[in-house]
Every structure is written in structure tokens, then in C-alpha cells.
Amino acid sequence: MCGIVGYIGEKDIKQILLGGLKELEYRGYDSAGIAVLNNGEFSIFKAVGKLINLEEKTKDFHPQGFSIGIGHTRWATHGKPTELNAHPHVGKKSYVVHNGIIENYAELKKELETKGVEFLSQTDTEVIVHLFEDLQKEAKTNFEAFEKTVQTLHGAYATLLVTKEEPDTVFFAKEGSPLLIAKNENGEIYFASSDTAVIGEASQAHYFEDGDYGYASKDGVFIFDKDGKPKQPKWQKLEQNKLSAQKEGYRFFMEKEIYEQSDVLSDTLLGRATENEVVFEEIDKELFDGINEIKFCACGTSYHAALCASYLFERYAKIRVSVEIASELRYKEPLLMPDTLFVVISQSGETADTLETLKMAKNAGLKTLAICNVDNSSMVRLADATILTRAGIEKGVASTKAFATQVAVLWMLSLYVAKLRNTIEKDALQNQLRTLRTIPQVVKVDDGMHERIKRLSKRYLHGHGFFFIGRDVFFPLALEGALKLKEISYLHAEGYPAGEMKHGPIALADPELFTIALLPKNLLFEKTRSNIEELSARDSTICVVGSEEFEKGDDFIKTKPHRHYMQEFFEMMVALQLLSLEISVRLGNDVDMPRNLAKSVTVE
Ligand code: G6P
User: pTM score, two decimals?
Assistant: First the structure.
């Protein structure tokens, strides 16, 4: 997702801005740009695609001496990923970069247009710079104009603005999206949306709080809170080691990625889960014309996300769904019918088996869609349409945040298709969207729960196997929980539909068989409870995950009370991820690089 950098000083500003953006690259983006003010003149460079394109454009640019500058990597939300829509955005003599969404941009734009302002891009961001220049006309100082601009904006923003009228100053504001200012002993000043962009350059950072705004120049940093009261920066020492900084204090990338899920899910939903509808700017509605079936195809964790989708699509969009494991589909001589939309799901976009099935579907003349985390990957290039999951780079081999964002996208897509097919009432859709928007909060790791799971994990290091059980979408979640555990603990684990245990697997039940039972309150509670009782009667050791304690269980991981089963789904997902992580840590395994596994499997 979008990244911001800024700089005030005498060093090679081009290298600093591009280097900072490079460090933010892992968040994903589709265009980038920088604006540098040097000797009273602006130089602007923008490019679509990877940073290398921007580097190429700036290769003859060598500013000397003091400069100020801002830079941005953009993940398109309002307007397609074109050069015109890339930041920085220009007014007459000022430039702005912005992360987030300006919710009242449409009305502000209309108002400015009636005053004769011409807009060049389709972005919401562009209103900031025009509004600032409009207010400059009346204001006594540039800062006053900026302050008024910030007070007029609604929504989420981290923004930097520079103007020719004050060539040593960067104006900043933060509400809802992260932003920090950093400095070093030479008096240089840096801005960034994440400290990874300034590590190695700056020694201290101050992290802005929501509502903060102000300006910085060679003369100092001036910060004001949301009530306009001046406040002092709280400088904190910055980590100097890039690698451990990337882990941001977590023991493993997997742990960091579990904790990151709240932020990345906000990114996944951004601009898509609106109040009344699901918006996917990247696909055309016509993709679903003449479609009577959706066939999902994937491997590993992505296959589990596909299984979740099968429940959600049939329930909400009332459309026939089939789910295939890619390595199986390849050789089963499948019937690929022209009224089927073929959807591949893949974190990497490179998994050989899934890629091959996408080629098969294309050759059979089917419409295709890729749900993928990596832009420009082979699947993205090949499919007719793509929805990116926006999870950012996932380093842990055991997938966590990629799965969370896949399920969120699939849930949104099921509602999108439901609306197209008129299978969902307006109120029901609004209710689903409201629930969706709570998910970033739901997956925030609760310290109490993590501590509890850490303690509990010591009881689950042996035994002859684990069964993870659940019903409905909690069955694929059980499969995913079992996969996580085997991937990093090397213990035998299986996922099962709770109601299916009696048809064979229950024969294994004894105290050394550990059952992790997913017991949501809002979906098939009684049915699942009966299945757990059957296991408890056979003396299996049972750990229940749910919001209501179950007296016949041995252990209990308590989730918060929720009103919707998908909220329970996402909180249980976090609990299962943490359980695998803590068991693996106790067993002394390499959590991030488990034996025999690869992050991206590009062989058949
Ligand atoms: C490998 C990874 C899994 C992943 C699977 C599919 O096995 O270790 O974590 O789920 O590939 O990968 P994809 O990139 O297609 O989602």
C-alpha cells in the first residue's frame, strides 16, 4: 500500500527519497513519484510500475546543495494506476503526497471547480493541494492556509505538502494513517510513513498522533494537536539495524505478520467496503455476464481460502461454486464450461500448478480472474482480471496475513456478486459491510489471549495427533489451523468437518489425541457442540476455541463475544495462528523457514 517519504537538508535528496521509497516497497504499490524543490525550482518525476522506472527517469537529475522534497508510492484506490494519478499532485506552485482517503473530496472538488480550478487527476488527493492554494489567497501565512486546509478535510490522511512560496519548509498532517518525522545530528529532517524508510539515515524519530499537523524547516519542527495547541516532539531513538528493524521487535516474521493483520486488512478494505456497496475499481461488472458457475482453484493455504469462498458465494450470491486443488485439476480432464468463471487464488501468483490451471482455463475459452497478493506476477499478467489482496510482502513461509486478506477479498467479492445478481437485500448488504469494516479491529491481537496461548502451548507438544474441527466456514479454518501446525511444528494434524468425525476418525480418540474445536456462537453452535461432546465422551483431550466456555472441554481459548460468525472466524484464525507459533517456538523449530517448505513453489 501507499508509502510516504520526505526530506529537508543538503545531502543527495534524490538518493534519500528513492532509497526511502525502496524500503517501503514491500507494502506494494503500482506507481511512484518524487517532487524536489532546489534553488527555487521544482523537479517532478513520476512513473507507473516499479521504482526502477522512476530511477530510470531520474538518472540525469543531480540537484546540488540544500533541497526539500517529498516522495510517494501509490496503491490505486481513487483512479487507475496511471502517471497522472501518481503522487505528488500539483497545484500552481505546490505539491502534495497523501496516504488514506479524503472522504469529502467530491464536494470539495465541486466547490473548487466552480471557482475555476482545473483538476488533472481522478484522485481524492488532488483536492488537498488546490484547497491549500485557494486558501493561500486569503491567509496571512502559508501555515495558516495549510491549517485551514487540514481543518476542512474529512477522512484518513497522512500528508506532506511543499510550496514554492516557502522553499525551506515541509507542511505535514496526520489523521488515521501513519506518519513520522525523524532527524539526525547534522540537522537533517526526514519524514516517512514507516520508520523502515529512515533507518540508517536518521537517529531519532517522533511518531505523529492522530490530529497532529504542523511544519518543519531548518529552524525547527512545529507541531500542533487537533485543537491547535502547540506540542513538543517526543524523540525516540531509532533502531540502526535494518534486518531486525524489519521484524519491528517481533521474534519472527510470522509473529510480526500475525500482528500486522489489522493494518493490512484495513488496506484490503480501503475504498472497497463502502457503506452501501462493494467497489472493485479494478474489475468490470461484465466479467460476470453469462456466468452460472464459479470455479476456484488454488494450492495450500490459498485452497483453504477458496473453500471458505464456496460457503460465502453460495450463501450470499446464490451461484454454483466448485473448488479444486490445482495439482488435481491439471490431470483430471476436467469439464471446463464457457459459463464458468475460473478464479485462481494465490499469494505469490507464481505457484506452478495453479498457474498451469489458469492456462488450461484460458485455452478452454473461460473468463478468468486472479486473486493475488503480488502485482505483476505471472498469474496477474495472464488472467483477464485481477483483484490484489494488498497483504504486503509476506516473509514467513507459513502464510498468515495473506490468508486473512484472501478471505476478506472473497467475502467482499461474494457480496459484490450478490448485489449484481440481486440476491441480497439492501439492509442485509449494509449489515455485512458494517461487519466487514470491523474486521481490522477484530484481528488486533489481544495481549491476554496471546499470553494464555503461550502458557497453554506447553500442554500440546506431544500426543499422537491433532484434529482441528469445525463446521461451515470453520471447517476450512480448521484445515488451515491444522496446516499451520504441521508446517511449523512438524506434529501430525488434520482438519475435519466436525460432523464427519463419527464416520471413522473418532476411532482414534483417546487422551493423547488432541482436538482443537472451533465453536462459534453465531453459526451452528448446538450442532458443533454435540460433535465435541462425542469426542469428549471418548476421552479425547479437547481445547475449545469460542466465546462460551464448554464444560466438557479440557482447555479453553476464549474469544470475544461477536454478533456475526465472520467476526468469530477472524478472531479464531488469529488464535490458531498464535497456537501454532507458540508450539513451534517451544519445540525449538525455525518458525520462519520450516524444514522442507518453500514460500513460492514454482515446480510441479
Ligand atoms: C506453498 C506455501 C504455502 C502456500 C502455497 C500456495 O506451499 O508454502 O504457504 O499456501 O504454496 O501458494 P500461493 O502463493 O499460490 O498462495
Answer: 0.74
Which three cell numbers mark 497? Answer: 468437518
**Annotation marks residue 2 as catalytic:** yes
pLDDT of 512: 87
Catalytic residue check, 297: no
Interior angle at CA 344, CA 265 and CA 252, nearest 5: 45
Domains and CATH numbers, the chain: 3-247 (3.60.20.10), 264-442 (3.40.50.10490), 445-596 (3.40.50.10490)
Q: In the predicted model, is pLDDT for residue 77 greater than 80?
A: no
CB-CB contact of 191 with 10 (8 Å): no
Of the residues 2, 297, 372, 543, which is catalytic?
A: 2
Residue 325 zone, left/alpha/beta (φ > 0; ψ -120 to 50; rest): beta
Are the C-beta atoms of 165 and 205 separated by less than 8 Å? Answer: no
**Pocket mutation for ligand 1, best pick of 254, 301, 353 (most atoms within 8 Å of C-beta):** 301
Per residue in 450-494, pLDDT (tens digit) is 999 999 999 999 878 999 999 999 999 999 999 999 999 999 999
Which H, E and C letters describe 152-163, residue by residue? HCCEEEEEEEEE
Question: Which grid cell sits at 505?
Answer: 476418525
Distance in Å, CA 194 to ligand 1 centroid: 28
Above 80 in pLDDT, residue 243? no
What distance in angstroms lies between residue 508's CA and the mean position of ligand 1's atoms? 30
Q: How far is the CA of 589 from the centre of ligand 1 (A)?
A: 20
Exposed/middle/buried for 241, CB within 10 Å: 0-12, 13-18, 19+? Answer: exposed
CA 597 to ligand 1 centroid distance, Å: 9
| Beta carbons within 10 angstroms of residue 140's beta carbon | 7
Q: Of ligand 1's atoms, which has the minimum distance to the CA of residue 398?
A: 9
Which residues' Cβ are closer than 6 Å to ligand 1?
299-302, 346-348, 351, 354, 397, 399, 597, 599-601
Q: How many CB atoms lie within 10 A of CB 360?
A: 17
Please report, to the nearest 10 degrees, the dihedral formed by the alpha carbons of residues 249, 251, 257, 259 taken in order: -60
For residue 379, pLDDT beyond 60:
yes
